[in-house]
Amino acid sequence: MNVLTKTDPEIAKLIQQEDVRQRETLRMIPSENYVSKAVMEATGSSLTNKYSEGYAGKRYYQGQANIDEIEALAISRATSLFGADHANVQPYSGSPANLAMYVALAEVGDTIMGMALDMGGHLTHGWKASQTSKFYNAVQYPVDPKTHLIDFDVVRDLAKKHKPKVIVSGATAYPRFFDYAAFKEIADEVGAVCVADIAHVAGLIAADVHPDPVPHAGVVTTTTHKTLRGPRGGMILCKEEYAKAIDRAVFPFLQGGPHNHTTAGIAVALKEAAAPSFKEYAAQIITNAAVLAEGLMARDWNLISGGTDNHLILVDMQNKNLSGKDAAVALERAGIVVNANSIPYDPAPPFKPSGIRLGTPGLTTRGMKEEQMRILASVMADIVDAPEDEAVIAAGKKVVDELAEAFPIPESFVEEVSQAA
Ligand code: DSN
Fold first, then answer.
1. Structural domain boundaries of the chain?
2. The ligand 1 atom nearest the CA atom of 173
3. Which of 115, 189, 237, 308 sits a CA distance of 20 to 30 A from 201?
4. How many helices (H) and strands (E) in the chain?
């Protein structure tokens, strides 16, 4: 960062400090990952200088020869990886992608249905603090109070009662697979469009280690930076019948010029995700989460739903007499970065919730496997048992330092990509 250091030493220093923080701590927030240098280079390129309102071949600005090809590549890689009819790669991130999906499928004031935020859903699935609940009449489905699983009888009853135009599946804190066929059946019964928000699990779906919503859902929305391991961005996949409405909703209804540097980064990440080694990566994410869950449960950690099928683990800390926030703060002191999170039917407020949420996409990118998960389960349990014991924190930090050094953030997935080409 020679130039940046000269131009703006304050920002350069903060970025360098963040590089060090990312290198020296363990990323266990399940929505975060580490991208390749190739994705970084595409994202930090001259493409940021270009305006391209419109779509390939139909732009409102001249000078699109390269941009059109980049966007076309991103689209064809997305449709091919997910087996979708159509892809729009312009949404700025997951929330704008979801808003575009509603705009395409419903009128303001129509009823939409999604999982409540405090049950594991996303803000944009109609949560009361989100504008999606003001623009639309949002009906929220819960999880079962005992099993913490989606109860399809409850979803069906709510759908029959409220007749939503759109039913959204998907979550930010649901540790189990989604039964997309069941959602589609209910959507068909009430004449709703079946939508899947796969932001968290897109990489797992691309690698065939998670159920696939594409055959069932009319529209699939996603971010590109979680298990898919691309830059921060969004994407909408859909069946041909929704393609025009989705494209119009993204541009011109909601957005102006697409972020071409992000589009290029998404294209690179999609190429990386098509490599055979990405399948191994995604399978290892799930194995790692299962082993970590087992290790934590052996130390009397209360896992929501009793375990995990995917990349994430949601923990109820109430039996440890520790808030989720205090647990997350203690773990971070040892270099383990998770997030405090509400649990279903949480008696505590959202800013000091009873749970923590953690996951394995980042650690798996760093090459960690079952053995490291067992070590980490033990370190985390020790810290949660004695969050104010400086010797325990120091011992945990020593293990984290060793792991961070032994498993550096990889720069490249190039070998895998050339195999796939
Ligand atoms: N903020 C994302 C997450 O952490 O899951 C969802 O938008």
1. 40-273, 277-406
2. 5
3. 189
4. 17, 15
Where does 40-273 sit in CATH, by number?
3.40.640.10
Predicted TM-score (pTM) of the model is: 0.97
Q: Which residue has its alpha carbon closest to ligand 1 atom 1?
A: 31
Q: What is the pLDDT along the chain (421 residues), one digit of tens a residue?
A: 899 999 999 999 999 999 999 999 999 999 999 999 999 999 999 999 999 999 999 999 999 999 999 999 999 999 999 999 999 999 999 999 999 999 999 999 999 999 999 999 999 999 999 999 999 999 999 999 999 999 999 999 999 999 999 999 999 999 999 999 999 999 999 999 999 999 999 999 999 999 999 999 999 999 999 999 999 999 999 999 999 999 999 999 999 999 999 999 999 999 999 999 999 999 999 999 999 999 999 999 999 999 999 999 999 999 999 999 999 999 999 999 999 999 999 999 988 999 999 999 999 999 999 999 999 999 999 999 999 999 999 999 999 999 999 999 999 886 656 555 4
Residues with CB under 6 A from ligand 1: 31, 94, 122, 172
Q: Which amino acid is at 410?
A: P
User: Is 3.30.240.20 the CATH classification of the domain at 277-406?
Assistant: no
DSSP-derived secondary structure letter, 74: H
Catalytic residue positions, numbered: 51, 53, 197, 223, 226, 232
Residues 6+ apart with CB under 8 A from 229: 33, 34, 35, 36, 39, 203, 269, 272, 273, 361, 365
173: CA distance to ligand 1 center in Å? 9
User: What is the CA(31)–ligand 1 centre distance, in A?
Assistant: 6
